[in-house]
Write the structure tokens for this entry.
Amino acid sequence: MLLQSPLWAQKQTASIDLKSSHFAKIEYLINNQLSLAEKSLKPLFTKALKEKDRISIIAYTAYLAIIETKTNRSTDALALLNKCIHDQEAQKSNLIQSSILYETLSACWYELGNYDSAQFYANKNIQLIYPDSSSIQFVRQKIIASRIAIKQGFIENALKDYDKAQTLSRLKNYEQVEADLKNLEGQLFYAQKLYDKADQCFILSLKKYAQQNNKSGQALNYIHLGNVSYLKYRDDSAKNCYNKATQLFKEIGDISGIAICKSNLSRIYLEASKHKEAVEEAKDALSLIKGGGYAMIEAGTLQQMGDIYGELNKPDSAVFYIKEALNIAQKMQHKTLIRDCYKSLSELYQSQKNYSSAYDYLLKAYRIKDSIQAITYNRKLAEMEALYESQKKDNAINLLNAQQIANAAMIEKQDLQSKKQKAIFIGVGIILCLVIVALYFYYSGKQLKEQILLEREVKDAEEKERIRIAKDIHDDLGSGLSKIKFIAQHSLIEKDNDPNDKLKKLQHIASISGSLIGNMRDIVWAMHPDNNLLEILIVHIREYAYDYFDDTSIHLQLHFPDQIPQIKISKEWNRNVFMIFKECLQNIVKHSEATEVVIRLTLDTQFYLSVKDNGKGFQLKENNLGNGLKNMHTRAQAVKINYHINTQLSKGTESIIVSALKDIST
């Protein structure tokens, strides 16, 4: 959130006459040069105290608190504001003066990462100004409330506050808040993972802040643009945005803003495996905010330090920093950050083969489960528990080996005491050795022949598998690459192309490329020898369905059996079933206009998978099937799968995959 100067200066313009010009100047300097703002503020503050001008004292107190919060003096800022609140309550001052203090307290707590306190004072302020719910002050307070809700993860509440602010702004033509609203719109898109739309909003907001000569607003948008670029794997662009934001914050004198940029730059350097630079940026960030009370920045940067030392294979240092971050997160009761720290600790302990601690921390992370799918955690917990049990077994085996060594020593001692008995058995031993040697050579020759035959069979199988993989790559990737080549060549030879047409072709190429990457990933997954169990295929189907519909408005329902039989399945059947299922989901998103999808699986004597949507349906003609449906039927016939479609116009579509369990095993 952009920590702005108080939003109430216009409330009192009429009553404070020429003082409004002082307010405007201070507000401008707060957004552009904090040191000069503080210097200009002190004589005005002194004069107001001498004249006992209560409204000016409150206004200048709020301005000073904002400056101190931005310059690592948050303790002084909060003490100053709380003293004013106490004086206000004792003197029963007017609502406007209380509104000034509540709004400033909300902004300061937001900057410090304490979103519950920020929300508390924002709500109190809204209650004070609610009778004037069409004023620009009410609009701005709704913008602040929406930003706080985004940080708390309450996106629905954030959208409601944004809609109210946007509606009133358009109705009253409040041009002063256009930059704030566009930035807020970008944050809402970002929270919903709509990164392209968020990027566009932040660019527009950046331009509007530049027109207002508001460096603080520009720096904020550069940080958001850097975050979008980072999540879209454009690390160079992200680094450039963070550097621009850093430069602006340095010009302003905003210490907390500089610290945020350095923490983000540390993350970029870590991604590039530049560990020295990553550590330097993170330490600079922590040094800047030391003792300032910026809990969110400090905890996030400490966790970042833990990740860096984890990659440097320094587990003790990594655990130290992550536990420091965890301690801060627990004091803040910030569940998402607590969960991330638990996960990092679990991964570190697992790398040290301390499976007991790794399991405990993963279990704690699972119990937080703010936004984590249970299926992924269940599988990880099962794997961690298995590793833990394996470690216990290894310890038992080591103990048994030690006992065996002790027993061998005792036997050896007894043997030394019975040399006469050994002499008797020497001859028998020699004979037995000769027999054993003869048997060894006989069976070795036999095993060698069997091994040669087995190697030939393996080579034949590998050759068949290579041919099958080559066919899959040719079928799945050949046609897509040909399309890309055709579109690119056609675009090169055309003259005076329409820019929109070129953009559509590039988007088409990007779409084909994304599809090819997905198909290649599925080929590799199906080839992996560890994925030849029916249970693993079903887990893969569940996870793919969740991920595929995650960023859509389609509601997904899954009905899967609790118990899944341990059946090994052939690679061919595994791949074809998944590719048919994947094509079903793609057809729903592309063509059905559905709002709900139900996926149902039953396992008794047969594998029965149904994918049903409530979309518009279509007319199914046997002699006029598209390439997609033809390919699905071809895949089904290749591995004895019964695949058919039930569909009617306006009544949705159901795709059914049926296969006898006896036909799916290897």
User: Anything to note?
Assistant: The CA atoms of residues 541 and 578 lie 7 Å apart. Residues 419-493 form the longest helix (75 residues). The two ends are 57 Å apart (CA to CA). Confidence is low (pLDDT under 50) at residues 1-19, 370-381.
